[in-house]
Structure formats: C-alpha cells, structure tokens
Amino acid sequence: MKIVILVMLLCYSFAFSSGDTTIHTNNWAVLVCTSRFWFNYRHMANTLSLYRTVKRLGIPDERIILMLADDMACNARNEYPAQVFNNENHKLNLYGDNVEVDYRGYEVTVENFLRVLTGRHENAVPRSKRLLSDEGSHILLYMTGHGGDEFLKFQDAEELQSHDLADAVKQMKEKRRFKELMIMVDTCQAATLFNQLQSPGVLAIGSSLKGENSYSHHLDSDVGVSVVDRFTYYTLAFFERLNIYDNASLNSLFRSYDPKLLMSTAYYRTDLYQPHLAEVPVTNFFGSVMETIHTDSVYKAFSSKTSNNKINSEMPVNQLSEHDELQKANIPNDELKTEKQKCPYTQMRVDLHEKLEKFENVDTVVNLGIAVMVFVVMISSSLL
Amino acid sequence: MASLVRSWIPLLILQSFLVAVAFGSKEAEQFSEALLLKPLPDRKVLAHFHFENRAPPSNSHGRHHHLFPKAISQLVQKFRVKEMELSFTQGRWNHEHWGGFDPLSSMNAKPVGVELWAVFDVPQSQVDTSWKNLTHALSGLFCASINFLESSTSYAAPTWGFGTNSDKLRYGSLPREAVCTENLTPWLKLLPCRDKDGISALMNRPSVYRGFYHSQRLHLSTVESGQEGLGSGIVLEQTLTVVLQPETTSVETNMQPSWSLSSLFGRKVVGSCVLAKSSNVYLQLEGRLGHESKNVDTEIEAHKLWKNADFDLSLKPDRVLRESSGLLFIFDIDKSSDSEPFDLGLNWKLPSKWSCQQAPLQASRFLMGSGNERGAIAILLKATESQEKLPGRELTDGRCTIKANIFQIFPWYIKVYYHTLQIFVDQQQKTDSEVLKKINVSPSTDKVSSGMLEMMLELPCEVKSAAISIEYDKGFLHIDEYPPDANQGFDIPSALISFPSHHASLDFQEELSKSPLLSSFKEKSLVRSYTEVLLVPLTTPDFSMPYNVITITCTIFALYFGSLLNVLRRRIGEEERFLKSQGKKTGGVKQLLLRLTAKIRGRPIEAPSSESPAAESSFLSTKLIFKIILIAGAAAAWQYFSTDK
After folding, report:
1. Which residues are CB-neighbours of A13 under 8 A, at least 6 positions away?
2. Which residues of chain A have a Cβ shorter than 8 Å from any chain B Cβ?
3. Residue of B74, B149, B180 for testing the chain A interface, max A β-carbons within 10 Å
4. Do A154 and A145 contact (CB within 8 A), yes or no?
5. Is the model's pLDDT at B318 over the cut of 80?
6. Which tens digits make up the pLDDT trace of A345-355?
7. With contact defined as beta carbons under 8 Å apart, do A137 and A17 qualify?
8. pLDDT score for A61
9. pTM for the full model?
10. How far is A108 from chain B (nearest CA, A)?
C-alpha cells in the first residue's frame, strides 16, 4: 500500500513542478469605459461602480487605472453636477470627493489601452498612468461599452478586436506582468471577445453569449438615461453584501448570475485558469488581501509551493458552492472539473496526459507508459 | 513636586530642540488661507479661495518639506521651472457684470478648459523637451489630458504679446478639456489640510460645480535667494474662483438675494487649518462709500458699517478697510469651533445697485463666412462706459492713445492668410501704419506647428469700436487625426487681449498688509481679458466609407482573380483522370489494415509508396509491440508467481 502512496506523490509532484513559482504580491485593476456621449451614461456608471467596489475592497488608487471616455459628472446635461449615480434612488454618489481618473476623454483609445496593458509607454508618461504590475500580480480588467462579434468599440471610432486583446495578454504573460488575470466584460456578445485568448492564468467573464445583447437595468427619469447595465448591476448586488474579510468564492459570484434577470447568459471561460473556482475567493481579483508570511530573517527566500498550499488549505470554501453545479451549457469543461475533484486517479491521469503531450521525444513517452503499466500490473496483482 | 519638575525638564529640552530643528533653518515654510466673498451686481456671489504656500530658499535641495507639497517642489527641480501657471476653467467670465479692471478679474478670468504656461530655466535647446515632460507630469498629477499640449501643433512660444517677456516661455491651451472633481481633488491634496479643515472644507463638490463659473488656478514662481550655494525658494499660489447663484425666495427682482456660507456651499467653517499662519475671510462690497463718513474710528461708526439700513452682516467683522471703490470686512476664523461654526451671512434690506469697473475695451470674437472651405475670424473691441475715467492713457505725438495687445494661436488646420488682415476703427478701414504699432507672426506648418499672431494696436482714446478681421482656409485632416466626435467641430483657442499701459490694483491703505491675498491685490497686475473659444466646423469624411470601399474592392478582386485563376489553372482532363484513379483507391483505415497484415506476414506491401517518416513510424511500432509483449510476459510471469504462493 505504501508503494501506491509513493507513486501518487511522485505523480503529483511531477504535475506540480511546472506550476508558477511566484507568490501573489499585489492586486491591480484596469477599469475601462469605452463609450463617449451622454446617452452612454450607464457605461461610465458601470465603471465607476466597479471602481468604488475594488477601492472599498482594498485596492488603493495608485493601483487602479481608470479610463473614462467622456465626462459625465460635469457634463452640461447632468442635472446633478459632479455626481454620478448608478441607481435611481440616488443614495450613492459614485463620483465622490476622491476619484482619480487616469485616462479620460480623447485619451481613451485602443492604442493607449494596449500600451497600458503591455507597458510600452513613452518615457515621459507618469507612473500614475502606468500598469506597474509584476509577475505576482493579480489583475482585474473590466471593460464596458458597445461591442459585437469579437470586437469592442472605443469611443464609437475604433475597435478592439479579440485578437488584439489576446495578443496583448500574451505579451503581458511573456513580460511577466501578471500571475492571474481576470477579464470581465459587459457588452453585447461579450463572450466572443475571449475566443482568441491562449495565455495560462487568464479567467474571463462575459455578460452575454454570441448573438445575445447586454441590456441596461433601469432608467432614471431624473437623469434622463439608463444608469446601469444588468450584468454590472447584479455583480454589484453580489459585492455590496461583501466586506474585505469575506471569503466568498468566484464560484458563488458566477452562480449569482441568473439568466432570467440578466436577460442574457453570462459566460465564463475557465479552461486557462488552473485553480478551482470554488476555492478562489473573489478578493483575489476584486480586492487586495495580502497573505502575510512571517520570516525569521529579513531577506529569506521562501518557497512558493508551501504558500500556495497554505492558501488552498486554509481557505474556507463556501459551503454552497461545493456541490452546486454551474450552468453546464456555458462551461463546457465544468463537468470535467467536477469530475477532477471527485476522483484523484482521473486527475492524475489527466495531468500526466497533459505532461506527456508536451514531450517531443516519443521514446521517453513510451518508456514512461511502460513504467506506469508495470506499476499498474504490480498494483492489480498485489490487490488480488 | 521636585521630581515631577525634574522629569519634565528633559522633555522640555527635547521639545525645544525639536522646535529648533524644525524652524531653526532661517525662514520657515509658510502657509496661509483666505476666502474673499463679493456680491456681484447681477445677483450672484463670487467666492475666491486663496491659498499661498512659501518654501524659503534652502540648501537641502527641497528634499524635505514641512508644509510645502513635495510633488510641486520635485516638479520645479526636475524640469527647472522658473514660473508656471496652470488653470482649469469652466464657464465664461462676464466682464460686464463681474468686473474687468480689478486684480481679481485680470488674474482669475481664464479661458475655458485648461491653460498652461511655463518659463523654464534651461538652455534654449532644451526648453521644448522640458515642456513636453512637464505636460506629462502635470497630466499625471492633475488627472487631466494636459499631455496633449506636448505636441508642437498645440503650443506656441509667445515673444511679447503674452505679457511675460522671455524666450523660454511656452504657452498652450486645451479649450475642450473637461474640468471636474478629479481635477480639484489632487489640487486640494497639495494643501497641508487638504479639504478636511479650514476654509477648504467649504468646497462641497456639487455646489462648486453647480456655479456659473469656476476656475481653479495654480501659480508657482521661484524666488532666487541671491546667495551662493543656496537653492531657490518657491511660492505656490492656489486659487479657486467660483461664481454662485444664491437661492432666493424673494419675488422682488431688483432686490439683491441674501445669502450665507451655509446656503452657498451647504457647509460651514469649523475652525481654521492649524498649519496656516493666517486664515481670514474677507467680504468685499463695492460702491458703498459715498454715504459713509470718512472716520471709522468710533465704535458706533464701525457698527454702522456692518449693520445699517441697507444690509446687515450676521457676524461682527474684526476689522474694516476702505478703498477707493468699496469696503472690505475682515473676519478671523480662528475663533470658530464645532460648537460655534463660522457662518457668515449677508442680508439685504433695501434694493441696491452698483456697477463694476470695466476694462477700457471689451473684446469679443466671432466667425464670418459660410461653407466648409473658407471663412474669417473677427475680433471686436468695444469701448466701455468707464473708458474715460481710467488712468493709463498715453500721449504719443500729441494724441491720446490706448494700447492693446492681441495674442492668438491658430491650429494648423486653420490656414490663416496674414495679408488679409484688416483693421477697422469706428467702421473706417485703417492702414496698418496708422494703428498697428508692432506685429509678430509665426505661420503654421501643416501637422508640425501651430500659427501665432501677436499684435500691438494703438487706438485713439475716443475710439468707440475697433474690429480686426483675418481670412483663413480650412485644412484637411488625415482620417486618423479626427477626434471621435469630429462632427462637433474644432476649437480655436481663446485670444488674449491685454492692455499694457493699464494696471489694476486695489490698495486698502493698510500698514503693508500681512495677508498674502491683499498683498497680491496690491501688486499691479496687467489688465487682460480672454475672448470666447470659437467652434469651426471642418469637412468631416463619412467615417464608414473606407470600410465600404474595402469591402466592395475586396469582393471585386476576389471575383476577378478567383475566376481568372480558375480559368488559368484548371485542367479538366486532369481532373477527370484524378477522379477515376480515386475511385479505385481504398480508404485510409483499409490501407492501414493492409499494411498491418503485410507486416505480420513479413512481406512488403504491393505499392511501396511510403517514404522515410512512414518507415520510421513502422519501425517505432514494431519496437512498441515488442515492448508491450515483453511487459505482458512479465505481467504473466508475476501473476503466475504471485498466485503460486
């Protein structure tokens, strides 16, 4: 029996050895409103709501890049100067006394957006306008505006294509600008924007599938326009219940989206993201909760593996999310994930299979296969 | 008791030592705050916040500051800024009703949007680089798109028309820049008390931005110490000028509305900023000197000044100053506290009327012509009522004249023909030599630099109106250069009209006023006014047309080349033969089976068409099969032995 455990441990260590060797260092947020003109008030309200949420959950202003394509707060048409509301009850002024807008007006272009992501700026660009993330950063990228099949419009004049986004993310990965990236998009046909993504560590949420529209939630007759989109409204409804110490998982966030209320189907792309969503707290992306590691010496190199394990083991999993199934239609590989969770052998096999596929030398593959077969034969015979 | 004293002594020594360290270095940094309130003739109220922060010359290279904002001192040191002014403005200053000949209007009436000018202390060749870097740094600091001023098409280097004569001066403005909370917040963060305490706590964002006019200004200048080895000091002046409409319930239209600080801002002042050297509130009333006696020494007379038949103030002023044009009430807010907040109110009892002193000529600017091809810009200078009374007239060759400087930047797509410059004085066209004293023109270059026009006019004193017109052609932009809302039109920045022989100042006849606000009023400032921003519609293309063209061209190309290639490359006879041969061919799986059986039999396949990779794979497969058989044998042996036991 000991041999079995030994073999399993061997296989596991093999599977994990290629995992990221960095620990989570900081959180960044890039919040983009891509729509100009007064009737797109709701897009700015969406973005500012998210801005407020991530600030409330602990991301400081210097780590938030806020891009607003137009000035709604001091717009001549705004009945409430210097105020932006995302609800007709006007209880919450999103444009409080402490908003730092990094890119605004004509500066919100596809070029500047890609420059922020990839970090390729002119020398003179100040630090407050740069995404100074590192290889341990968790980045939240939130975008809202008008979009279509594999594109998102910027200011009604340019388009960001899914290829552009995927290339930028790929470049970020190569430049080690993030550890985990969450892309959240609230536009029509948002799911199509993620089609080209390939980089590992990327988690994507879109408000609607291909062919579906994202609708606004309600109209404020005092402001005169719709003030918030449905997807963002329900995202905020989820976050308003949380504080910085809550451990709600991403899974519970995803489950909170009801297609009937959204009038579109939220889409999650999780195949590039390794950890189980039920074990990842939302504050991983929407907040800034740092893990404190006590070291005896001042500059002691600490291994990442232990800290990773610590996160996983200590994180109280949301009880509801454990056995709940996500909407199967939206997540093609969700079934696979739950299965993974149930049977360690299957997971091992899948991990091994993935490993094997990467090998160029076919002979080693065959030899490894044989080794496994030997073990299998030994095990089966000893069990008999 | 003695032991207590003994234990206190070291503490006291330490404290005095710390104080000495903090303030011992010659001069300490100073901060002062002030608020000037002024009822305006058109039933509005002007609130002018004034903050001054002085960093004395020091040899620590400004790395350490007590009160002075570090961000600004770093800016000054890094880009070697000698003098700089940045203003964010929304709304247009009403020169007729709000005044045009006092220090307040000449300094705080600014063009719409963002205006930036800076004088650098670097070699001539580096000025443009410094400017570029400065715009970027400021855009990061103040959350605005000031970095658009870095391109050479958006700024200019005025020589003498701007008022400050320096060849290291750069000037630029962005008329369409939005001004909102995010610009005010970083500006407030430069103050030692931010907006938490003192006068700045009044700045409730919705009430500030609801006003008719708000202009937020930051002016910094370096003061040379004159001593060797000692750096230069910096004076940072921050002002916010707001024109608000007090809410009124009275139906009488000629009655001035009564107001208080809490009704204007929705807040009250509770205590001064403890770091400020002085914090005062001033109330300026214009045109009410006539019926007051000259002597204000007696208590009754002073009381009459602030509680009389016309109006009364809710608080007793600490001092009253008089000036040629009005009264100034001074309040100290140090005494106010949470329990007793400072809430100054002005209550009018009788209808009251007065007028503001105006600049000698009132400027306005408009466009002429129609169509998308060409047009003309006209600047109209109209004489105001107060023209005769003003000082500053000059006698040249026995004639009385008024001097006026006009400074104007033209974007490159407004292609101005300078030879079409026409000047009309009292509807009569004048030749250049008659009225034009000096002119400096720098023509624009397409997509490289903007054009600039500086003129000095010398008009006769009895002039009623003067008009300047200049024609232009509209240029074409590249499709990438159009902004997203190109159909809205393009802005021509405000022109600046200044009167070099007129200076505004207010002298309150006080013993060299300690207050920075009053001393800044005392300084003679150049009378200047900005004109409106002009909106020029340019020809805008149909932005979707390129896509249509691309789509239709691609379709045509595909059809043409597709059919052409088809005709050229297709061989019918070949295809038929190919189809026949394919009919004989067997499927892939079948062929594999065939090959496998051949291998088992040890005979080569009939058609030896397989190349080297195939051979390799078959070699591999034999190896694999051999290994599998080996393992199976081993397993069988293991099984045999284990069951045997």
Report:
1. none
2. 36-37, 70-71, 73-75, 80-83, 95-102, 104-107, 122, 124-129, 155-158, 362, 366, 370, 373-374, 377-378, 381-382, 384
3. B180
4. yes
5. yes
6. 566 666 766 76
7. no
8. 92
9. 0.78
10. 10
